[in-house]
Amino acid sequence: MGLMRTLGSLLKGLLYALDGLRKFLHLALLLVIFGALLAVSHTTLPIIPGSAALELAPLGRIVEEESGDPLDRALADVTGENEQETRLRDLIDVVDHARDDEHIRALVLNLDGLDHAGLPALQDLARSIRWFRESGKKVYAHGLMFTQRQYYLAAQADEVYLDPFGFVLLDGYAYYRSYVRGTVDKLAVDINVFKVGTNKSYPDTWTRGDMSREDRENAKVWVGALWDSYKTDVAAARNLEPGLIQAYSDEAVAGVRATGGDLAQYALARGLVDGLKTREEFEKIVAVEAGEDEDTGSYKAVDWRPYLSIVRSDEALAGSKDQNVGVIVASGEILDGEQSPGQVGGDTLAARLRELRDDDDYSAIVLRIDSPGGSIMASEVIRRGVEALSAAGKPVVASMGTVAASGGYYIAMNADHIIAAPTTITGSIGVFAIIPTFQRTLAKIGITNDGFGTTDLAGATDLDRELGDEARQILQANVEHAYRTFVDGIARARGRRPEEIESLAQGRVWTGADARAAGIVDELGGVDEAIAEAAKLAGLKEGYGVVWIERDMSWREVIAMRLRTAAAWAVRAIAPRRAQMPALSSAMAEVRGLLELAANGRPVYLCRCRID
Question: Is 363 a catalytic residue?
Answer without folding.
Answer: no
